Amino acid sequence: MSATHVAEPMTEAKLDQLAVDTIRTLSIDAVQQAKSGHPGTPMALAPLVYTIWNRVMRFDPKDPIWPNRDRFVLSNGHASMLLWSVLHLTGTQAVNADYERLGEPSVSLDDIRRFRQLSSKAPGHPEYHWVSGVETTTGPLGQGIATSVGMAIAQKWLAERYNRPGFPIFDYNIYAVCGDGCLMEGIGSEAASLGGHLGLDNLCWIYDNNHITIEGSTSIAFTEDVAARFLAYGWNVLRVGDANDLDRIEQALSVFRATKGRPTFIVLDSHIGYGSPHRQDTAAAHGEPLGEEEVTLAKRSYGWPEGARFLVPDGVREHFAAGMGARGAAAHTKWTALLASYRAAFPDLATEIDQMQRRELPAGWDQKLPVFPADAKGMAGRDASGKVLNVLAQSIPWLLGGSADLGPSNKTTLTYEGAGDFQAGHWAGKNLHFGIREHAMAAIVNGLALSKLRAFGATFFIFSDYARPAIRLSALMELPSIFVFTHDAMGDGEDGPTHQPVEHLASLRAIPGLVTLRPGDANEVVEAYRYIMQLRHQPAVLALSRQPLPTLDRRGYASAAGVARGAYVLADPPDGNPEVILIASGSEVSLAAQAHGQLLTEGIRARVVSMPSWDLFEHQTQEYRNSVLPPTVPARVAIEQASTFGWERYVGAAGRVIAMHTFGASAPLSELQRKFGFQPELVVAAVKELLGRA
Ligand SMILES: Cc1ncc(C[n+]2csc(CCOP(=O)(O)OP(=O)(O)O)c2C)c(N)n1
Ligand SMILES: [Mg+2]
Question: What distance in Å separates the CA atoms of residue 333 and residue 325, rounded to the nearest whole number?
């Protein structure tokens, strides 16, 4: 008699467990191989991420940029192996920055083997511009959850503008996972407060309540009642007491989807390093490889083949294909058909959706941009900006934004008929009220940009510091976010040094890829916006004056179109052969122009270069740059109401920099200008001294 061994059939529950443990062991192996990374949180949260992805989320791995997909944000970005595992196991496909499908996996098993190595698609933290399927770059704690509020605002706005009865073109949800760090960070609180105020019921945060951060137990620094805090913010708060209970997690997620009028916060009690006998529930599980011995013990606890490395057992990929793969494909197919009939019924709206998705602009978007007449009294940069924004917001339906409670000062309020305020239930409004929350504002602007809207956020330039980490991420992500900063220098005089930016230009100019523009008059403001609106993969900062600046007579001066090149020759001596070059930005451009006139009368041949953007200028050809700043003219004076830092680059060792060495002072602007040297005669004196003609 012979017996044939029949393998036990795999039940759904067993496949679930196998998939969860595959995420765990891929994470463990990748960190061990790299000798660097964070194994503990993926080990704990594999069941959560598995449940969201395979049971709940509507996401088509074949098209990770399908506009109506649910969004998944891993705000505790150090647990990136969770994301690399599920992107790999679902077979998510790669797309490039031009939205073309590349016909290859977003994250291959080889990438995971090369976790944290050069050119691997499994880098240390989730990187939006680098790996398809990553919805936003995370790692700086708190940024992900704050950005998710922007994504939720975007969904509400898109649904309100584009959905029609029977046509739910945009009805997706946003899931964000966060840890203790995200909830300790101020930005997390700012964003949660605004999300609760707006009643964003398309937004679900899941809190990994493991009581562990790097220094040990949260009992050393974080003992508040987090759930009570979220109740107070107006969120629906749920608790799942066992992070391994897939059904309870799924149930909580379905409560979220049924909840109307407020966002959902799920407290998930978990054990960092779950399954590792010596590391579980310790800070050591957070950021160190387990070590070979402990890897073996952890695998033994999962019932995993102890010697296997990077094992994806038969049936796991198929299980994801049958779950998320099938659900996502069906939803996507249905949506594509829906969009086709929508296109027939609402062709104009469908065109808008197409253009927005490709980051294109509607035809004629810049036709109504103003041209400001010459005016010696002039106009403040912020006022010109307000006029331009009001034109652009009408010609570009998906341009929206707001201020951190400074709308009346920033002049960013959209005042045309029908612009409206964005509030709970008034989802079509184009004026966002961020409240006094600059950091969350900038992250939310990024979330809107990630959702393909064109968005701006505004505050005083001095408080760009409060937004800087999110501005930096916009550049890292290559997003066309727009930051409008007014009161760019000493123009608010009496407010004094607390309100006078000094080092901010230098610090923003230092961010790679960020376009920083400080226009010199109203027409330069127009040209700055014309340039910014055409950006598809770069963020921009505008530094605008509070006080009126003369609107230059462009019949006598060069056209403001030169703004697009970063710097241009505004004025030359009559024979075009300068012996000295004055370089200025913003409010100092008209000052340089005045000094230029005075110098000419004294027989000194000066050129004035308006330089609104170092970054744009650096991207011009050497030939163009030499034509603006000829190497044969070493006598140069830079004038800017900001830190001197960096101007040596353009004036050279022999040049002069009229700029700030201190934090300014509290006094009327005219007195400050005199005290700090921003007067035509002082510029003239500096030039004469430089030329040895004093
Ligand atoms: C803004 C910011 N500050 C500090 C860090 C460094 N850091 C990375 S993870 C971490 C601890 C996070 O603890 P928690 O969020 O509880 O994550 P867990 O260890 O539980 O996964 C810290 C301090 C960071 N990434 N971002
Ligand atoms: Mg923790």
Answer: 12
Contact 481, 455 (CB under 8 A): yes
pLDDT at 9 over 80: no
**Which ligand sits closest to the CA of 141?**
1
pLDDT value, residue 493: 81
Question: 340: exposed, middle or buried (C-beta count within 10 Å: 0-12, 13-18, 19+)?
Answer: exposed
CA distances from 374 to 101, 118, 371, 377 (A): 50, 54, 10, 9
CA atoms within 13 A on the CB side of 586: 28
Tell how far the Cα of 183 is from the centroid of ligand 1, in angstroms.
10
pLDDT the model gives residue 201? 98
The pLDDT tens digits of the residues spanning 143-176 come to 999 999 999 999 999 999 999 999 999 999 999 9
Distance 399 CA to ligand 2 centre (A): 38
Query: What's the whole-number mean pLDDT along residues 28-50?
Result: 98
Q: How is residue 457 written in tokens?
A: 């956020």
What single-letter DSSP state applies at residue 144?
A: H
For 89-129, write each residue's pLDDT tens digit.
Answer: 999 999 998 888 899 999 999 999 999 999 999 999 999 99
Q: Which of 438, 524, 527, 588 is catalytic?
A: 438
Can you tell me which atom of ligand 1 is nearest the CA of 76?
Answer: 15
DSSP 248-266: HHHHHHHHHHH--SS-EEE
Verify whether ligand 1 is closer than 6 Å to residue 78 (CB atom).
yes
Q: Which ligand is nearest to the CA of 44?
A: 1
State whether residue 645 is helix, strand or coil: coil
How remote is the CA of residue 183 from the centroid of ligand 2, in Å?
A: 10
In the chain, pLDDT over 70 holds for what percent of residues? 99
Active site residue 640: no
Classify 364 as helix, strand or coil.
coil
Q: Measure 179 CA to ligand 2 centroid, in angstroms.
A: 5
SS3 (DSSP) at 541: strand
* Ligand of minimum distance to the alpha carbon of 283: 1
What is Dmax (Cα atoms) for the chain?
A: 117
Helix runs in 56-126, H state only: 80-89, 109-113
Q: Quick one: pLDDT at residue 1?
A: 43
Question: Beta partners for 639?
Answer: 584, 658
Residue 207: phi and psi, rounded to 5, are -100, 120
Tokens of 319: 């299980």
> Is-contact 178 73, C-beta < 8 A?
no
Residue 287 Cα: closest atom of ligand 1: 19
> Please, what is the angle between helix 12-34 and helix 40-50, to 10°?
150
Protein residue with its CA nearest to atom 18 in ligand 1: 213
